[in-house]
Amino acid sequence: MKKKVLLFVLSVVLVLSVLSGCGTKETSGNDSSDVIKIGVLEPMTGSSAAGGEMTVEGIKLANEKVSTVLGKKVQLVIVDNKSDKVEAANAASRLVDKDKVVAIIGSYGSSLSMAAGDIVKNAKVPAVGCSPTNPLVTLNNDYYFRVCFIDPFQGTVMANYAFNDLGAKKAAIIQDVQQDYSVGLSSYFKKAFVELAGSESSIVGESSYNTGDQDFSAQLTNIKSLNPDVIFAPGNYGESALLIKQARELGITVPILGGDTWEAEEFLEIGGDAVEGAVYSTHFTSESPVTEVSKTFLEDYRNKFNKEANAFAALGYDAYMIIIDAIEKAGEADSVLIRDNIAATEGFIGATGNISLDINGDAVKSAVINKVQNGKFGYLTTIEPIK
Amino acid sequence: MNKEFLQHMANGISLGSLYALIAIGYTMVYGILRLINFAHGDIFMLGVYLTFYGITYTSIPWYIVFILASVITGFLGVTLERLAYKPLRGSPRITILISAIGASFLLQNAGVLVFGGRPKAFPTPEVFNKVISIGEISVALVNFIIPIVTLILLVILNFFIQKTRTGMAMRALSKDYEAASLMGIDINNTISITFFIGSFLAAVGGIMWGIKYPQLMPHMGVLPGLKCFIAAVIGGIGSISGAVLGGFILGLGEILLIAFLPSLTGYRDAFAFILLIIILLVKPTGLMGEKIAEKV
User: ipTM for the complex?
Assistant: First the structure.
């Protein structure tokens, strides 16, 4: 009896596998002729999952809006880099070697983008980052671009806010040593703050932790004893929310500032009441649309996802549109030609503003400062780029 | 300086008792079955998620959800044993160990599929967030509750194992599996009870973890699982009081390392593993472990 059941199951599996084999063959037959593949390299699981998912939402929306280019259908190949540098390199290799994409969008997270840097450079496949802000992502890499500003600007914006708006004279820094984003942004903040305050001793303490840490009580106890006026703690939304929660539990009451990665629902949910008043810089806000494209983007996003779009969705949308624009100008789906046209992007009107790429492939754009108010991200002000 | 030191000690004790709580379940399964249940951390994760769904999507009061989730997690542990370990009973120990690692990966990835990759926030009942200040030290209420829960469970468990008939059966099983079954001990039942208690404790630890660090991810059990395994080895794997001692040593050690040698923060997790290696080299049976006489 048991044997018969087993035989039956095995034969069903066999038949199914033959059938599914046929199915994949058919689609792969179509692939080369009338489909243009764009790879999407984003963290869908792990510590940056929320950031990746929000970006992908924006990319999918853009793909729905403009689903063909040069008369061919655009197919998104989404791979999960699991918020892990090694996985990011593997995923990028898979995109260029196996899926043969003509261009790549991503990744959220500077370290994850940098892990893919050499792979896209050697394969001569252009990559457009949505929100990796560390300068090293595009530096000395002709094939990496981005549609966001970079950390020297972001760090300066937050140092100015701390010094001028909050009147802080002493600042402490807590950074995630495993994230190039956090380390880079902290050092630019430090440089700008020291310049403003006019003395090295204005940074009273620097402390660090690792991605994935849950307990920050030791670092915070040390910081508390130094009595800073403000704490700058850029890092993943999850770790940062826990950090702020624990800071408040330890009786630290000074303002805590961060960077663009804080903009995720999870930051508010995990942090709860503790993150009230937290201030961070970001790329875009739905409260102050900058271009006509922003308005249509916000409306389309609302219709599709039934919520307000945030900076990452908008950047994902823009990255996709810039690649499509470059393919159109190139006239054919050739990676190197697409790369040249992306590099030449000038005055492109996107959801997040006018995008012109400089010599390094970075966008020069304004920054938005947001503050958590009544359990929501609230808009404070917009800071124009330094000319 | 003094008040910071006291605050560091308070932080360390609270983290240590959390490690201890999870390590108890780990060490218990090992002590009785000689099986390192690598899926313990993932059972812990299931417990936290069950609590999350119970509080978020039902109107059952949180304290009942805590109990229900722990009991259900206990039964999940029993199911895991039935599916992944029981068919291999009698095989070489390494086979079951590999099965345990497989079960761990399966649970993690099933977690990603079912719960999603994005983190969820643990719906902490308001009472636990109350901050208590004693002089210059301030800690959230949950940090007082965790050591108390750990100590209560330690006492109950010791009583259960030393004084009840089921406990006696467990001890018999751990000494000699075959002889115990010849003496009329219901092996299957006893092993199921062991897994039930181990998984129940994992869930209790998970709930406490969720209250203290309210970030839920499908992979959240991996590192606590490993650390608590280390805590169990330090204390002497198989010894319940040893697991508690090991947990405290690890928790305090980690906090004091970061507090006084901030430049070594990056080595926080490495510290735990270095401690593991040292213990295995110097005193393989752990601080409170029994000396195992090798039969020749």
Answer: 0.89
CA-CA distance, A151 to B68, in Å (whole number)?
Answer: 48
Among B4, B14, B15, whose Cβ lies nearest the Cβ of A225? Answer: B4
pTM over 0.95: no
DSSP secondary structure letter of residue B116: -
Stronger pLDDT, B161 or A20, i.e. the higher one: B161
CATH assignment of the domain containing B95: 1.10.3470
- The DSSP result for B210-251, as a single string, is HHHS-EE-TTTTHHHHHHHHHHHHHH-TT-HHHHHHHHHHHH
Nearest chain B residue to A48 by CA: give it.
B118
**Which tokens is B122 given?**
């643990």
| Closest residue in chain A to residue B267, using alpha carbons only | A210
Q: What whole-number distance in Å separates Cα of residue A80 and Cα of residue A73?
A: 23
Taking CB atoms and an 8 Å limit, are B265 and A225 in contact across chains?
A: no
Amino acid in the structure at residue A276: E
Quote the radius of gyration of chain B (alpha carbons, Å): 19
Q: Indicate yes or no: CB of A218 within 8 angstroms of CB of B112.
A: no
Count structural domains, chain B: 1
What tens digit of pLDDT does each residue of B20-44 get?
Answer: 999 998 888 888 888 888 899 999 9
pLDDT at A7: 55
CA distance A26 to A284: 42
Q: CA-to-CA distance for B65 and B63, rounded, in angstroms?
A: 5
Q: Domain range for residue B29?
A: 2-282
Residues of chain B contacting residue A209, judged by C-beta atoms under 8 Å apart? 265, 268
Residue position matching structure tokens 């389309």: A300
Q: Which residues contact A33 (CB under 8 A, 6 or more apart)?
A: none
Residue B288 included in any domain: no
The better pLDDT of the pair B252, B93 is held by B252
Domains and CATH numbers, chain A: 29-149+289-356 (3.40.50.2300), 152-282+369-383 (3.40.50.2300)
User: How many whole angstroms separate alpha carbon B79 and alpha carbon B102?
Assistant: 15
Residue B287 lies inside a defined structural domain of this protein: no
d(CA B100, CA B192): 16
CB pairs under 8 A between A and B: 103
User: Per the domain annotation, does B296 fall within a domain?
Assistant: no
Are the beta carbons of B215 and A241 separated by less than 8 Å?
Answer: yes
Distances (CA, A) of B20 to A188, B208, B213, B242, B262: 41, 12, 16, 9, 24
Residue A215: what residue type?
Answer: D
Q: Does A209 touch chain B (CB under 8 A)?
A: yes
What is the sign, positive or negative, of the torsion defined by CA atoms of A74, A78, A79, A83?
Answer: positive
Kindly report the three-state secondary structure assignment for every residue of A136-198: HHCCCCCCEEECCCCHHHHHHHHHHHHHHHCCCCCEEEEEECCCHHHHHHHHHHHHHHHHHHC
User: Is B10 a domain residue?
Assistant: yes
- Nearest chain B residue (CA) to A81: B117
**Of the partner residues A49, A251, A272, the one whose CB lies closest to the CB of residue B117:** A49
* Mutation target vs A (from B4, B7, B124, B228; most A CBs, 10 A cutoff): B7
Kindly report the backbone phi and psi dihedral angles of residue A147, in degrees, each rounded to the nearest multiple of 5, phi listed first.
-105, 15
Residues of A in contact with B14 (CB under 8 A): 217
Strand pairing class (B215-216; B120-121) = antiparallel
